[in-house]
What we know:
The chain is mainly beta. It has strands spanning 3-4, 15-21, 27-29, 34-37, 42-46, 52-56, 60-68, 71-72, 87-93, 96-102, 106-112, 118-122, 126-130.
Amino acid sequence: MIIQQVSQKKENYMYDVKITNNYIYSIFLDGGKKMIVPPNGGKAELNKWGSHILNVPGMGDINFIDLSETKLNQYTTPKLPWTEATWGGLIRYRSLDAYFRYEGQGKVDVVVDKWGSVALEFAKGGGMIVSLDDLIVV
């Protein structure tokens, strides 16, 4: 994975996360010690999210990684202007990865359906499915 880092200071800018849980189990935060969204239509809104892990019982973890100014060069192109935005994040779930970038205050909407599948929407900026290796043997 090739990354690019620039030297701006990120102060109050992070992304907000809105979670809707239509799954049959509650969703837990950072290792499962704190229930954050109740089942069957529960909702949560979290501000200035940063890096955290949501646990979806029976399905696994949704790993939110705050990339700050770091860019994934292989997914940065002037053809998609949002990929050149200052701030970014990466969401990893069940060997799938979503890369997103934004300016100012980002926003990520997460919906867990009744089967435990996850839908993401990036209301500010943009996002795409990317392919990052989970393991490399050298």
